[in-house]
Amino acid sequence: MIVKNPKFEISAVGPKQYPKNNLPEIVLVGKSNVGKSSFINTMINRKKLARTSSTPGKTRQINFYNIDDFFYFVDLPGYGYSKMSKKEQEQVGKFIENYLLKREQISLIIFLIDIRHSPTANDRLMYNYIISSGLPCMILANKADKIAVTKVTDVVNSLQKELNPIGDIPTFPFSSERKIYKDDVWNFIDEHLEIKHPKN
Ligand SMILES: Nc1nc2c(ncn2[C@@H]2O[C@H](COP(=O)(O)OP(=O)(O)O)[C@@H](O)[C@H]2O)c(=O)[nH]1
Ligand SMILES: [Mg+2]
After folding, report:
1. Ligand in closest contact with the CA of 39
2. Domains of the chain: residue spans and CATH
3. Which terminus of the chain has a lower count of CB atoms within 10 Å, N or C?
4. From ligand 1's centre to the CA of 144, what distance in Å?
């Protein structure tokens, strides 16, 4: 896939600021610091279009990245940031749920977890919420560079079994650090976009 002109469009703090066109949206969901913003940069071959940080942020904004006027990557706020109060965490959870519930143009949810750890309690809550919404979803076990290459397949399989014992949600490894496994993810995204993007 060749992305030619990805653009940051808006940091929305509420539904009134969401883009008004009906482009499909591919949505990144995951806890703070799991690598959502890095994922976007990796997929579009840009170093810094999506803002990343090594210290989890407190943003309660939804960032929309317009990908060649074909679709949006939507960077949701991370949940489970330990330095937030319970109340703040609940507010972020509601903010995320409200977007997922109301936004009709969502084509796919990319749910990121950390390949090194079992899903957290918050991961499970969010995963269950996504499944109950009925929206198409894939699971990415991110930071795959942090474990031995020979273990990746087994670990991905066991993480999938933990979250999705029926095995109907596609689960892939990913690494923004090494920029590997991108093709599988692009293929899956392609299948979920009505308008096909020109391929390499
Ligand atoms: N080793 C490794 N680090 C990553 C990977 N993806 C993201 N990171 C790092 O994890 C931190 C948080 O990434 P970021 O994309 O800001 O996470 P977000 O809060 O989910 O948007 C940054 O220091 C990134 O460099 C990855 O695949 N492998
Ligand atoms: Mg981020």
Report:
1. 1
2. 6-192 (3.40.50.300)
3. C
4. 11
> Which are the contacts of 86, defined by CB distance < 8 A and separation ≥ 6?
none
* Angstrom distances, CA of residue 18 to CA of 25, 46, 59: 11, 23, 16
Q: Write out the two tokens for 182.
A: 């991108």
Pair of tokens at residue 63:
């960032």
Q: What whole-number distance in Å separates Cα of residue 97 and Cα of residue 95?
A: 6
How crowded is residue 99: how many other Cβ atoms within 10 Å of its Cβ?
21
Cβ atoms of residues 49 and 40 within 8 Å: yes
Measured between alpha carbons, how far is 196 from 42 in angstroms, rounded to an integer?
Answer: 20
Instruction: Report the pocket of ligand 1 as residue ranges, CB < 6 Å.
Output: 30, 32-38, 52-54, 56, 78, 142-143, 145-146, 175-177
Among 94, 141, 85, residue whose Cα is nearest residue 118 = 141
Contact 78, 57 (CB under 8 A): yes
The whole-angstrom separation of Cα 171 and Cα 166 is 12
E-strand ranges in 13-151 read: 25-30, 62-67, 71-75, 106-114, 137-142
